[in-house]
């Protein structure tokens, strides 16, 4: 299937847009009128540019408020159209997108609309141009795709077809099954857009909140299956009005867009039972390791030691330490000299039954493949970059090749058994991109997106996990426009968190995040835990949550650079992440440490 | 009237919030539960802090999902309440806000709700605490204020009253006239929030889009008048859930909040015919001058000269030049050495019939008064800082005191007669604050807010003007999260823009912004202007617009630093600002100048 994108979907000048979408591998573009008007190049030169970049100009759009008008207005509307036809000829495209009329003056008269669209199609035919009529969800009288199609059928001209736009169909709640009644060769264009399921004015929803397929709540796979069953042979064309994409890096957006289409092609192939060119997803089977880069090995090593980890190995040729406890493994490497933070999470090792296949799939989904400088003789490790720059290594579950250069002693056993989850911090505009990446590349399923009040802004957070909970990631997103990134953390699964907390409280160095007393006073109101349990939680700085499946106990360490650790114990089948406690934790993380003496204020 | 604000309305730790709202002049606060929970201070210390800052703790909130439950749940809910009562005693507040139950388990049974609330009020009375019951717009069964009031009346306990929240009343479209049926002493709390008129899910609307009175679309003056007629003597308390405020500077938000209440008090005093403590608004009568600070006097002077301005004076004691044409006056001063831009708009002189009164009003509305360093003997100039930092000078319409130190020659007369409007550029989060400032301080009326597509993000723009059009400002707002600020410009009214444009085209230095040819091709489709007129526009780089009142011709100069000039001619009664042309103008401003030779690409 040809892959196309409307130029309105990415940021920049028209020439920048064309370059970005060509680089991401698109076959074609729809030229959005405003992008043409603001471009200093005449249409002929834009056509050359596109050709040079291997891009077909699939359509010129939109032409508005044409049909179902009083007969005396028609001449002026045809005059407008003639000007557009001339631009299209110069631009080298033969498809004009006409939106259903939204103006108050147009008539609720299908026969009139059809007659006037036929006139338009006749004129278009003189220029070798085809017209695709699209029912806008907020069209004055024509606002459903089947109504639009009835008018096209009534007009009955070979140069007039319909344009289907998934947003206009699904936002109205129309049943897309009716698409199969339309002959595929009368669907001149298929525009694809997803959107989060919002209860709001459909025009505002469409103009600001569209997103790429798989990033919202619409069933685009089902819709595309219906369209393909008609025999439609045109492009899959993304038309995404999104405030964020308008200002994001064009190259990055174009890759995100292309990834969404590749993933959509795969899922529709599954529905239709046709073959997919993608390697099948090899779900990660656990965390092989997490790697922290730091300027302060001593401090971080001290913290890991306090948590019960031991340094089990040193990389043969590179300055990387391996710290272990049970099956929880942390690598400590040196931070890049130019890094703005002294400590951050830089890599995650994911166990895979077939690392090469996992990497191949990631690459097919446009994840940047990382070239690691390796010493001669070192084993190959397959790695790609995640959206936030974290390196993802695919590690053989059966044979820990990555561990070989460490020549490590046996890990100590303690209460910490493994990594429960890893929380990654993203800038405010990477929410949808990151979720799509982990879903498509790793096959993780998104949990509900939640909002968490930080004292300095609203964070968003979304967990992603496989069904078994072997790999859980939480994607934390900075407040809109914020420059600082959220913290990153590694949550460690503990089988006796009370014992661990007691040991940590007894240490001379205070490594635990203080929790406000007001939290514990309120906990007493929230849950009837009994006085003794309550006192223990307060004393040990443990936070508490409960869901219908079980209980959750957790504690946090102080933060080093961008990184902190969480110790968690899931009792019963608790499925969450203690999100109700997150605002208090965030407030505590912002609270300056009390001055040691004399007895200070505490804030 | 006491003025209060809920701590959720501003950013920061609880102690930072208290300090910010005290500094802005508030009398009290509602303590939002999450702010308390995250605070390291115990409630007693928070109480001391508030007292020390002169703040009364008006309420503790919210207590949720209490009433109309199965009898076996009541004991647990009362247990919860007892914990909150104890916290409130320590906090030193006697008012608890209880929201109508939203949980699926509660019964649609007013008698049960009333009985259980009565039980709560009895317990509260033992602690000297009062309970204010509030109907949430999304309450499960109780979602209108009159329904809430009926239940309070039915419960009939002196410690139970109602809380009215303007958002919950007006978002539901309830008639606020019914408020007058409630005895004022049974209204325990009035919460005020405005909001833009959005068609969306009311919960999301409430949680993210509330704003300060006068910044949205609700008639808060009318609602407040109803409340005051009941004899209500409690505080006006702002409870604003707004994603922007959560992350903005707390001090700035608190001042914005206080300004909104002062302006609301004035407008309600007008409705009730009571006296207002504010000096009456003295509407500006025209632009006295605009001041540009620059590192490059020569370049800017050259540009002004090309536009027909002459340097008519030099400040006696300071390095400021006066440039004039007709009644358009531009001051050129030296840029602050630490300014990041080489040229920016720094001040506007506004003609006022009573400058001292205008300044007094601005000060009463918390505009920062500017202390200008003046030479001895210089006349006093009243000036305040606008939200974007622009200095606003109030200048006597009758006697141009500001002009005296220039000892200037007579201005030349040309086609430019006066300043038509000035466009100010704001960061993305100052939209509502700026509009409220100009409306309250200067008495300007807001036009419709519009969105303008820049190639690198969506700008918002809102014009503000007096009824006569003597002073027009446009507030341009950067895309969400963008670091760069929009350009600033001075638009000059011209009585023969064609002659001016012809002269400018003939100059050896090209000072006009190039306009893409595609714009003119499309203009032919948009308007039937005739070939000759069309050719003239294209040749002279004039842009064109039309509304129901008349025509608009405009052109733009190149940009120097952050600043460019626009020349405009309003033909007939055209009221707009040529906004339809703004995307093309913005695209042209982003287009790099073509290299001089050999004939380049143009982009």
TrEMBL record, chains A, B:
It catalyses: 3-dehydroshikimate = 3,4-dihydroxybenzoate + H2O. A divalent metal cation binds at residues 134, 165, 191, 239. Residues 418-558 form the VOC domain. Coiled coil: none annotated. Its EC number is 4.2.1.118. Pathway: Aromatic compound metabolism; 3,4-dihydroxybenzoate biosynthesis. The keyword Glycoprotein does not apply. Mg(2+) binds at residues 421, 489, 566. Catalyzes the conversion of 3-dehydroshikimate to protocatechuate (3,4-dihydroxybenzoate), a common intermediate of quinate and shikimate degradation pathways. Belongs to the bacterial two-domain DSD family. This is 3-dehydroshikimate dehydratase. It comes from Streptomyces chryseus.
